[in-house]
Amino acid sequence: MSEHTLRVFEVFRQEAPSDAMTHEGSVVAADMDLACQYALSAFSRRAEAHRLWVVPREAIRQIDDPDLLRPPGDHRYRLARTYRGTIEKRRRLRARLLGEAP
Amino acid sequence: MRPAARDALAHALLATADDELVLGYRDTEWTGAAPILEEDVAFSSIGQDEVGHARLFYALLHELTGVALDYRARRADEYRHACFLETQTAPRYSPDGSHRGGSDWAYAIVRQYLYDLFDAERLAALRASAWDPLAQAVDKVQREEKYHLQHGRMWLERLAGGDRVARGRLEAALARAWPHALALFEPTEGDDVLLADRIIPVGSSELRDRWLERLRPSFSAHHLALPAERGRSGGWTVTVAASAGGRSGRHTPDWTDLWNEMTSVYRLDPAAVW
Description:
The complex is a heterodimer.
Chain A: E1 7-14, E2 22-29, H1 32-43, E3 51-56, H2 66-69, H3 81-97
Antiparallel strand pairs in A: 1-2, 1-3
Chain B: H1 3-28, H2 37-65, E1 92-93, E2 99-100, H3 105-127, H4 132-160, H5 164-182, H6 191-196, H7 204-221, E3 228-230, E4 236-238, H8 253-262, H9 264-268
Antiparallel strand pairs in B: 1-2, 3-4
Helix pairs in contact in B: 1-2, 2-4, 3-4, 3-5, 3-7, 4-5
């Protein structure tokens, strides 16, 4: 098997039915069927998986543009920090109404 | 179970366990030497499964005879596996830098596939055994064999439909394998008693025909020759002589090497408890 016929496949694993799929790593294989065999032996040889996903790396679209990921504008308003203040204010209000020391 | 049937079943279980142990050992020798890293893991994992199945069959043998067999504490000629399985296929790299060649990945794949199909048919027969513990134990093993069969089929298809080099290696490996693969069906002692008492309700020649029948679709799809001809009525005539011996303890020099290695630690101190 020569190097140029091999492709990379990314492998995702779900440990229990209610868990999210998590990226575990990758395998190199000549095709999808062999990749599935290798995913099984590499990532669930000791029965660690409830389910595996095997995805050809070229099927994955990568987004790494910083203008899209971390736009330079002031986005503090999205951080919902004021909610934390609201919780504190509500605690003080309740204490005052109930006649407790704030 | 009458005593003659029990003795015969003990022979059959020992042969089965030894088959799995020896092939499993040889498969794991590919760790670090298979075509790619992923295949190292996959093929060694198959080998580990086979060793696990060997343990199960040794345990059944214990249950049947009441005697716990230490699989290492036997002379080399007391093992009953088929000689097909003892042949070294992986290269050897010594710490001193020397390298023993003669390795053959195509042969390793062919052997595994032909053996797994034989094993699948044998397991189906064992599952129908009148001896309940055996019939029950086989279920788990059968489920594990699914992975092995898929793996073998994929490689066979890829070698058969590959370039001239791949195809050539596959054909050479098959031609070399047939006499030894056919010896998988060498009957164990008391085979006829097992059949008569329905302890193993499929005889060795019937098992061989089922195996050939199972090989037929993929081999004909890839225009690969079988070591037998199929008559109009569906009966098979084998055209290659089987190289028997293993089931009666007659083995090849490769087995002497492997036995020496497998038992080397045990023989340092046979009384030691592990």
